[in-house]
Amino acid sequence: MGFFKKLKDKISSQTDQVTDKFKDGMAKTRDSFTTKVNDLVARYRKVDEEFFEELEEILISADVGVETVMTLIEELEMEVKRRNIQETEEVKEVISEKLVEIYYDGDDESIEKLNLNEDGLSVILTVGVNGVGKTTTIGKLAHRLKEEGKTVLLAAGDTFRAGAIDQLEVWGERAGIDVIKHSEGSDPAAVIYDGIQAAKSRGADVLICDTAGRLQNKVNLMNELAKVKKVISREIDGAPHETLLVLDATTGQNALSQAKTFKEATDVSGIVLTKLDGTARGGIVLAIRNELDIPVKFVGLGEKMEDLQPFDAHQFVYGLFGDLMVEPSDE
Amino acid sequence: MAFEGLADRLQGTIKKITGKGKVSEQDVKEMTREVRLALLEADVNFKVVKDLIKRIKERAIGQEVLQGLNPGQQVIKVVKEELTDLMGGEQSKIAVASKPPTVIMMVGLQGAGKTTTTGKLANHLRKKFNRNPMLVAADVYRPAAINQLETLGKQLDMPVFSKGTEANPVDIAKEAIEQAKEEHKDYVIIDTAGRLHIDEGLMDELHNIKEAVNPDEIFLVVDSMTGQDAVNVAQSFDEQLDISGVVLTKLDGDTRGGAALSIRAVTGKPIKFAGMGEKLDQLEAFHPDRMASRILGMGDVLSLIEKAETEVDEKKAKEMEQKMRDMSFTFEDFLEQMEQVRNMGPLDDLMSMMPGANKMKGMKNMQLDEKQIDHVEAIIQSMTKQERVDPSVINASRKKRIAKGSGTSVSQVNRLLKQFNEMKKMMKQMMGGKKGKKKGGLNFPFM
Hints:
The structure holds 2 protein chains of 2 kinds.
Chain A: H1 3-12, H2 16-25, H3 27-43, H4 49-61, H5 66-82, H6 88-104, E1 122-127, H7 134-147, E2 152-155, H8 164-175, E3 178-180, H9 188-202, E4 206-209, H10 219-235, E5 242-248, H11 254-266, E6 270-274, H12 284-292, E7 296-300, E8 308-310, H13 313-330
Helix pairs in contact in A: 1-13, 2-3, 3-4, 3-13, 4-5, 5-6, 5-12, 6-12, 6-13, 7-8, 9-10, 10-11, 11-12
Chain B: H1 6-20, H2 25-41, H3 46-61, H4 64-67, H5 71-87, E1 102-108, H6 114-129, E2 133-138, H7 145-156, E3 160-161, H8 169-182, E4 187-192, H9 200-213, E5 217-223, H10 230-241, E6 245-249, H11 258-267, E7 271-275, E8 283-285, H12 288-296, H13 301-311, H14 314-325, H15 331-343, H16 347-353, H17 370-381, H18 385-389, H19 396-406, H20 410-433
């Protein structure tokens, strides 16, 4: 069975609604990516060095990390030789196959699931640099978990940015969820401590903690974050159950540096990729998974409450190559 | 981290060449390949890179590189010249309308830092040009965006015009300008809503605001960490609104900021300011030549030299050196020196500007804790004149008093005294060995 067919079967077994969300959200990404690959395939009949060079550029333009692209191209060249592929048309399938392979690297889809404590309080800590959409993501995630029937509580740990607490409260109101807060400028660890106590006494299922955005090269701020994490683990065994790094899909190579440094400070367990509904490709998540082994758990596909979707690498690649897949089956 | 500067990248190739005595076209090809990767890793758009490499190759093969003694350095030089050319000259002027108020419109994607930059720009206008700006909250969509601007306004003690989230942004902008005229404000800075740039609704809205208020400047605020997409962002905003300049934010991060080059290349519009931190006074004029160095990963040598030049008073430096020599260096001098270094800006910034600083072992994770320096300062300030000049008089009860006065503990005072003594010893060794060799002036060991 061809790879495209497998991918297609896989996706059609899921609800159409989710697939459409993904498809719509990534329309821009897919359009430009597919057009480019198709264009490339049309122009080069033969698979040669120049073909690979252009392919390399297409991948780089999707912000897939330089190193990952180099590895990918190398593997592709090998594969093409091994299978003795001459026609560029055939390469298309190998490309997407390799992309998914790079992403999973032997693991299965369970890496994408949110890891929650089934019988007791789960704590989710969100971290990230400034302006990636942490607070918005928390609002959407809280809404999502509430829809699943969980009781959710938010802790307004961003005590630094002007208006951050208000912003979280607006999201809390929209979702009908309480927010534990202190005043601006107070100690974030104290807010989160209070959040944990409140969640415990109310018997909440999930506590989501907001933190102030910080650039990863500010070591003092990173230490502050490590402290917040320590407070959480001290209060509840095995917490935080998830530490989510929120990443802006428009970010380039710096995302790797972000992932690495935040992982060192807070042992990041997953990524939320936001703003994927622009023309941004978010290809850097492939590099992050490849080089740092952190899976993506959610993607933000729009500005509405419902626009946070669980990540699925198959869907992601489908988003990139969706239109490519239709063609071969038509023949 | 994963980022290697161009200089490091070229090391291998250069080694090969220096052994050969003759540089072949193949070598140039290899070198430009490294240049290409370095630029791509810095997030410069691949199309921009392609054009650049083409030009560099032409220049390089056309002898310039081949004749030099150190071809590697020459390649870097050629690359840097090309980059600097592309970046254009320095331009941080802000328009002044013939009839006040001057209207500035801030536009950009979500999370780029528009609201913060609005506050910073207002602060800049007041501090540098003694202007009297008014801020306008026209972002009615993002929860608490108006709140955020109002808080900034309070911090700056500046008026913020807002009409809540129900009003139409175009009306808000128009009314704001009327009010600014009445109150004799000379600048109006409009903070608009950020969205994803493909959003036509937003673009229409921005367009309508532009039509209604006819701004003198439209600044596009861009996150310096933006990847390949920076080109699309800049292009679509420029096409729709004909922006007049760019503000690059979050440059205090460790991004190489190739986006700057891409934006400049596709729009031709100048990058005017750079956001260098979270505080409201951390907005700086943008230096294209330094950005070129940064993209290449060569460290911001120029910035550092300039900072050192303006802040360190030559005469004082000489006096200080003399004192170090004859061991008459006191806490008084120590305090003064600390202040000089501090005037150069946050210590982290200084460290990160030194080329190779992040390559040095131990240096990378060394954190200069500003708080600790505050403590040291407080301790010294709690000493009497006599104690500062002759620390040997400090006995247990004096230590207690100093600790109380500075809000620290006796052990902290002890530690400082010990460190100070060790420093003096070290100075003696350093100065003793090199006496007479160095000519005045303050020499940084890394330069």
